[in-house]
Specification:
Oligomer: single chain
Number of helices: 6
Largest sheet: 4 strands, antiparallel
Radius of gyration: 28 Å
Number of strands: 8
Helix content: 25-40%
Structural class: alpha+beta
Strand order of the largest sheet: 4-5-7-8
Number of domains: 1
Shape: globular
Strand content: 5-15%
Amino acid sequence: MSALRSHRYNGFKHRERSGNAWVTVLVVLGILVLLVVLFMPATRNAREAARRSQCKNNLKQIGLALHNYHDVYKEFPPAYTVDEHGKPLHSWRTLILPFIDQQMLYQRIDLSKPWDDPANAEAFKTVLPVYQCPSVKPEPGMTTYLAVTGDNTCLRPARSLKQVEVTDGTDKTLAVVEVNPKHAVHWMSPNNADLALLLGLSAEKDSLQHTGGYHVLLFDGSVRFLNINLQESILRALVSASGNDEVGEY
């Protein structure tokens, strides 16, 4: 009987130890799950911060290319070129290709024919990372980096502007803006942004690729992050190249 009681006691102790082991495993798993949940937002934030940094660097590279273009041709590129009938042909993004290490691609483009002509099909298929925000996954070749165009902007349709003509100051005048994906265009396309599109971005803040605003390239080559709720008067002043507008703090 003593041996039987001992066997039962040992069996009870074994089950107790097994039960404690499972409790320990479950506690450890619970801690691991909690840690994963706690660190996931931090990981996402770190990834988005890295993507925002790369987006900013893309625009800085574009700004440097615009100024290198100006150094060579003594004027900034037009927003787009036109044919003899005034039909848009090629974007400023195509014109600055030699200044973003894409000389060979530039040479393969027939500038006398439209950007979407079959003669330019090979270039059309080319994806250029410098024209793509890492926070966006657009269709191949699409870009959310659009020039600000209009009658009094720096990049004007079919007309080149010299730096001295930017009388409002290159540090207070927009060159390129980052729009939300629904306004994306092919990088070869002559389509760009205007004041109306910019003013409408505040109503589309939930679809912006960066929380709270968007990047802009100023004509001095600097990149700023504009708050989506920026005052309309400031935005209008930033668009103007020679309107003697007071931009103020932003």
